[in-house]
Design goal:
alpha/beta, about 45% helix, Rossmann fold, globular, about 10% strand
Length: about 400
């Protein structure tokens, strides 16, 4: 979604945008590298933009002399550890990330420091945003008017188990240890840290088995990182939504763009919801232009930030909710406090321990919810549209480059 929003923003600012895929199914891009480079450079791009991660699985492209003459902006809106662990064994991968013509924008302070430590390259902060043309205030929908609302998913246990089974048997044992450890961890702890602690505390027999796998280690670690992300995401959401349904009727609008989300039956079981306190509506067929309608439901919207967002990593939901002038109750992150004022533009909690009390208090304060919604909306308009991000990114990119004609999106 970030890529499509950024592409739309570039076009609204008057750029001609050309979209290229570096890889085509069943085609070896290395065999036609010069042709690919020629196609990308044919419109004489002023800049090249891409999302971090997968694009670097063709490092030869970024090592090409002619590509190195064009400024490249790389957006990382997720933890870079997953693609890094997947591709680090590929020759030239780390060097591709370090090209002098690249500017990396990373959405979380913790991962900016991680990136500099592991890759050796500094990066700039970036936040997601929302487009006021796509997200704006609408009249509240009368149905479920008195519900707390969560727009998002829990990954189904079936899908999680399927991912676990993709692991080598050694990895499956490690995954079981990890799942137990995260279940006992404090709210919101970085799942990759828990995975690292799990690996460091493995029984000697498992350590030996892992070492014997040699080069297959990177594949196991990559899949373990995916498993850690899924379990971590589910854990914070389960804890908060379990508390929410005790305090207020809860509406979950689940399944937008995802096919592996938990069903209503599974959510009822996982959240241990009292009878008639939980309503689930499947929104997987909701397109981007209709997403704003989801924020017209309910009295107060809820968020449990995915724990790979350590210091910031602010999700779309923050900007979309405030763009629609709706109040949001979210967990605290340091960088979130730099974007919105806690208690005035957003309502906040620390963990599942104080969440229920905060939610119950908010539900009794109709005037407070209106004030928070208005203040959050004004802050959004002032600082957090994609137009704001555009001017920030282009200023950073142009500080060391000479404008040409077009922008190219990979």
């Amino acid at each position: 979604m970030a890529q499509s929003q950024w592409t739309s923003t570039l076009r609204k600012q008057g750029h001609r945008v050309h979209i290229h895929n570096l890889r085509t199914p069943n085609v070896d891009p290395r065999a036609n590298l010069n042709q690919l480079v020629a196609e990308v450079l044919d419109p004489r791009p002023e800049m090249i933009f891409m999302e971090g991660g997968g694009g670097f699985n063709l490092p030869e492209f970024f090592h090409h002399r002619k590509i190195q003459e064009v400024p490249v902006g790389v957006f990382w809106y997720d933890a870079p550890i997953r693609p890094y662990s997947c591709f680090i064994s590929q020759p030239g991968y780390r060097d591709a990330l370090k090209q002098a013509n690249m500017t990396h924008f990373i959405w979380d302070g913790f991962w900016r420091k991680w990136f500099e430590t592991h890759v050796g390259v500094p990066s700039l902060p970036i936040h997601l945003a929302a487009d006021p043309d796509d997200f704006h205030p609408l009249p509240r929908i009368s149905e479920y008017r008195d519900h707390a609302v969560f727009v998002g998913t829990l990954i189904s246990q079936k899908h999680i188990e399927a991912e676990r089974k993709k692991l080598h048997p050694v990895g499956q044992h490690i995954a079981k240890f990890f799942a137990k450890n995260i279940d006992n961890a404090i709210y919101g702890l970085n799942p990759y840290q828990i995975l690292g602690d799990t690996l460091n505390a493995l029984p000697e027999k498992l350590v030996s088995a892992l070492e014997m796998l040699g080069h297959n280690n990177s594949e196991i670690l990559y899949r373990l990182n995916i498993f850690a992300w899924m379990i971590g995401k589910n854990e914070v959401r389960k804890r908060i939504l379990r508390e929410a349904v005790k305090v207020a009727p809860l509406l979950i609008l689940s399944g937008n763009f995802e096919e592996n989300h938990a069903s209503e039956t599974e959510l009822q079981q996982v959240l241990k919801a009292p009878e008639k306190r939980l309503v689930v509506r499947d929104t997987r067929d909701c397109n981007v232009t209709d997403l704003k309608n989801l924020y017209a439901y309910g009295r107060l919207h809820l968020q449990a930030t995915d724990p790979q967002s350590v210091e910031g990593g602010i999700p779309f939901r923050v900007f979309q909710t405030t763009a629609c002038k709706r109040p949001l109750l979210t967990d605290k992150k340091n960088e979130l406090g730099e974007c919105y004022a806690f208690g005035r533009e957003l309502l906040t909690y620390h963990s599942e321990v104080d969440f229920a009390e905060t939610l119950e208090h908010a539900f009794k304060q109709a005037d407070l919810l209106e004030q928070v919604a208005e203040a959050g909306y004004q802050r959004f308009l002032k600082e957090h549209t994609w137009q704001h991000r555009y001017h920030y990114v282009m200023s950073a990119m142009r500080s060391s480059s000479k404008p040409k004609m077009t922008s190219t999106q990979l």
